[in-house]
């Protein structure tokens, strides 16, 4: 199991969270929002939340052993900001970075009984990112690949398969929580650290700005 001080960052939705895990135990957890609920304006809440979580834990950045970052799918801007911060910290501190799919974090975060579920996160445009989930012996596991589905089709698919829905505002109302990694550290470590030079989150779809650019210019945008 991963030892030492591990920073966990989850930002797939506008309700993000930070956690500090030490030697397999949760030391601190902090939730934040990335958009002002009154005005809808985007806020720069991520870096202050990380700084506060570390301060509350009495841990300096230099004392970190690793960083775990939510790897999407989810909101493009929030995921990209988290990835940039996580990669920058790991590069500067010479520590490993691990990525965890946001739908897995969501499944792990929900308190559900054994059975069949679908974990889903809002994707905008009346669509959802989703993945099938099985819970056996109290342990939720994502089955298969993540997908993108319309609002009505999500509910139809769940009804046909007898699955209950996990996600914001759904049957089991839940958000991905950074702290949910605590019971899965061995699994995360076994999957291996990412390559800092090439890794980026799985956004689930193109950014809105890229879609508009390509529609205007009639060709793909070289990234």
What does this structure look like?
The chain contains six helices and ten strands. It has helices spanning 46-57, 76-93, 102-109, 151-161, 185-191, 208-217; strands at residues 5-10, 15-22, 25-33, 64-70, 97-100, 115-124, 127-136, 139-150, 164-167, 172-173. Strands 3-2-1-4-5 form a five-stranded mixed sheet, sandwiched between helices. It is an alpha/beta fold and 223 residues long. Helix content is 30%, strand content 32%.
Short description:
The protein has 223 residues and is of the alpha/beta class. Helix content is 30%, strand content 32%.
Which terms would index this structure?
5-stranded mixed β-sheet; 223 residues
Overall geometry: globular
**Percent in strands:** 25-35%
Count of alpha/pi helices: 6
Order of helices and strands: EEEHEHEHEEEHEEHH
- Poorly predicted spans: none
């Amino acid at each position: 199991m991963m030892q030492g001080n591990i920073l966990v960052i989850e930002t797939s939705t506008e309700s993000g969270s930070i956690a500090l895990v030490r030697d397999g135990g949760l030391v601190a957890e902090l939730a934040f929002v990335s958009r002002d609920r009154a005005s809808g304006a985007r806020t720069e809440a991520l870096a202050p939340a990380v700084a506060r979580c570390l301060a509350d834990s009495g841990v300096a950045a230099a004392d970190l052993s690793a960083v775990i970052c939510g790897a999407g799918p989810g909101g493009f801007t929030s995921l990209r900001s988290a990835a940039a911060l996580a990669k920058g910290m790991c590069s500067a501190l010479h520590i490993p970075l691990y990525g965890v799919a946001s739908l897995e974090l969501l499944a792990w975060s929900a308190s559900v009984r054994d059975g069949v579920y679908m974990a889903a996160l809002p994707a905008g445009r009346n669509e959802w990112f989703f993945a099938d989930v099985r819970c056996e012996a109290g342990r939720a596991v994502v089955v298969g690949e993540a997908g993108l589905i319309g609002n009505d089709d999500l509910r139809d698919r769940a009804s046909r398969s007898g699955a209950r829905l996990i996600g914001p505002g759904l049957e089991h109302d839940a958000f991905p929580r950074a702290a949910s990694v605590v019971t899965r550290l061995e699994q995360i470590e076994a999957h291996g650290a990412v390559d800092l030079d090439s890794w980026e989150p799985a956004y689930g779809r193109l950014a809105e700005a890229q879609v508009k650019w390509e529609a205007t210019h009639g060709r793909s945008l070289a990234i």
